[in-house]
Amino acid sequence: MPLRLTSLPSSCAALVLLFALTPSALCRPNELLPRAGKTIVAPIAFTPAQNWEGIDGSWNTFALRTGSPEQQVRVLISTASQQTWVVDPRGCPDDTPTNNTCAESRGTTFNLETSKTWKSQGLYDLWIESNLGLTGNAEYGFDTVGLGYPGEGGLALEGQIVGALAVKDFYFGHFGINPKPTNFTNFTDQSPSFMTTLRRKNLIPSVSWGYTAGVPYRFAKVLSSLTLGGYDSSRFVPNGVSFPFAPDNERDILVSIQSIITDISGGSTALLPIPTYAYVDSTVAEIWLPVDACVLFEKAFGLTWDPVSELYLVTEGQHNQLILSNANITFNVVPYTQQSGQSTKQDNVNIVLPYKAFDLTAKPPYQGINKSSRYFPLRRAANDTQYTLGRTFLQEAYLTVDWERQNFSISQCKWLEGAASLLVPIESANGTSSSGTMGGVATPSNTSSKVSVGAIAGIVIAVVAILVLTGLWAFFHFRRKAERERRIKLAEEEAAAKKPGETESSKGDEEQSNTLVFPKAELEANTPVRHEADDGTYYKPGGKGGVSGTSSSAALVESDSKEREIFEMPGDMPARQEADGRQLSEKDVIRAREERYNGVDPALTPISPNTNNSASDRSPVSPNDRSPTDTLNGSTLPSTLSSFGRRALVQPSDVIELNQMVSPIDSSEGSHTMMFSPLSPITPSDNSPDATRRRFSYEE
C-alpha cells in the first residue's frame, strides 16, 4: 500500500504528542520531566556492576569512585545506612603487591592516605546492625564519591561521608541510601547524607528510591536495580498497598508478617506460629525470625542448626533433595498498623520465594567457618529487635521507599527476560523542585533547576524529526505537482498537434499572408539558384563556380525580399482584324497572351536631332503587312532593321532566325546563351542592329 504523503503533517503532530506522553523514554539522570503543567527532575538509575560476589552468598555489587585521584571499589546496597563504607587496606594484612586475593574478595580497598581530598573526622563506631551482634569501627572522613565506573557518566559529589573499615563482620563495604544525617560532634552540627545532597542540589525529584537485590538463578542472572528519586516499574507487579513508616527511626521500614507458608510436602505448611514484626534491611543477607518459626523450618526442610557458626548448614544430599522438591515459600505481609487477624485482602501482600532463593553458599571467614558450605539463610533471633528480612527476601521483592511522605511499598518482582527499564519519578511532597530533605523533613534550598543536556538532546531530536518529515512531505508534494503540470502541458501540445485540417501547406499560406509579396502570375520556369546567407557567412568563390584555390572570400549580398512592382504597359489585346474569320492558330493564341502580359514595343522611330522628320514618318505597321527584308548571315530580317538610321516596330508576325549565336561574354560560337543576337549590346558596334528588341516565344 503506497504511503499517503498528505498525512505527513499529522504524523509530525503525532510524533510531538508521543514525545510529550513518554518523557521517560529518553530520560537520563538529571533530565527535566513535565508533570501536570510543571517540570520535575528525572530519577537516577544507578547501574550495577557485572560482578556476583560475597562470603554469605552470591550478590550483585555496585561500583563506586572514591577520593582524588579516584579509586574504584565495589560495594553492596544498604537500606539502613546513610553513609558510604569502603574496606581499608588494613583489612587485608596478608595481601602483598603480588597477591591481593583478600582485597579482591572484599571488592578492593580504598587507601585514604593517597587521596588528596580526604578530610579525616576520626575513628567512630559503625553503630548499625549492632542489634544483630555485628560491631566494629571505622576511620571516618569527608571525600568525593562518584557512582559507577569511570567513563559511565555517573555523577560525583564532593564532601560525602566515607568510613574506611577493617573489621570482619562487614566483609564488604556498602552504599547507604538512607537520608538520615550523621553527627560527629553534636546533634546541631549534622552532616547530610548522599541522598539528601542529591535532593538539595536538585539532582533527583524527591528523597526516595526503589531497589531489588537481583537473582543469579533466573535466566542468565538478573542484575539488581537501584533507582534514586523514583522506581523502575518494569521490575515489579504493583499491588496498591502502602506501608507507613514505623515511629522508631532505627527500624522505620517495618512490616507485619502475618504468615509464612510452604508447599514442600505437597500441601500447605505453616512456618510462622504467630504474626510478628520484621525490619526490611538489605545490609545483611539472612532472614532473622523467632526461634519457634526456625524450628518449623527445620522440620519442613530437614535443616540442622550448627551452634558454632549459628548457621543452617546444608549437605550436598539435602541440597539435591531440596532442589528436586522445588518448594516455594510465601511471606504474607501487611502494614505494621494492622493488628493480628484484622487485616483485609486489600492490605495483604504475598511475596513468593522459590527454594533457589535460599540456596546460598557461605565462605570463610563468614561466621568463623573454615571451608565453604551450602547454607540456608535463616537465623535464630534472640528478641524482636532482631526480626529482619534481609537481601534473601529482596531477591523476589521490590522495595520502594518515599522518605518525604514517610511510607513505602513492597511488591512481587516481575520476571520478563530482556525487559527494558521504565523509570518513574516520585514527585516531592512539598511540590517544589528546589527543596531537599534531611531525615525525611523538607528543607528549602536555593538551588534552581536548569534544563539538562539530556532534555535539550530530546528536544533537538524531536525538532529534527519534525523538520525531516516536513521536508520529505514538501519535496514529494511539489515534485508531484510539477509532474502533474508537465503532463498537462504535454497533453495540450499533443492535442494542438492533432487539430483536424491542419497541414504543412496551410501553415505556409498562413505565413505568406503576413507579407506584402504577391506571387507573379507567369508560366513555370526553372527556379533560379538563390543563396540564403541571412547569417552573414562567407564563401569561397572556388566553391561557387569561381577560380579554384583562391583564398579570397566575399560576403553574399542578397537583394530585398520584396519584388518590384509590375508596371503594365497601356493597351490590351490588339484590335481584331475582321478577315477570313478563320480559327486562331496556336501561335496566335500564344502571341495574344504574351502581348497581354508582356506588352508591345512602342511604335517609336529614332530621329536625329539634326533632321526635321515629322510624326508622319511613324506610320503604324499592320500585322499583315510585310516590309522588304535584308539578309544577315543568311537570316531574314525585317526591313525596318536594314537601315541603321530608322527604327520600326517589331510586329508579332516578324520572324528573326539566328542560326549562328555568339555569346555576349566571349563572342564565340556555340555559346550556351540563347537570348542575345549575334552582336550583343554588351559589345556595341556601329553596324549592329537594335539590340533592345524583345523576343517572343512564338517567334522561335
TrEMBL record:
Protein name as annotated: Acid protease
Annotated transmembrane regions: 453-476
Signal peptide residues on this chain, from the entry's feature table: 1-27
Residue intervals of the Peptidase A1 domain: 60-411
InterPro entries found in the cross-reference section: Aspartic_peptidase_A1, Pepsin-like_dom, PEPTIDASE_A1, Peptidase_aspartic_dom_sf
Gene Ontology BP annotations: proteolysis
Sorted UniProt keywords: Hydrolase, Membrane, Protease, Signal, Transmembrane, Transmembrane helix
Ranges annotated as biased composition (Basic and acidic residues): 493-510, 691-700
Gene Ontology MF, one: aspartic-type endopeptidase activity
Domain of life: Eukaryota
Family the entry assigns: Belongs to the peptidase A1 family.
Compositional bias (Polar residues): 607-643, 660-671, 680-690
PROSITE patterns: PEPTIDASE_A1
Residue ranges, annotated region (Disordered): 493-561, 590-700
Coiled-coil regions listed: none
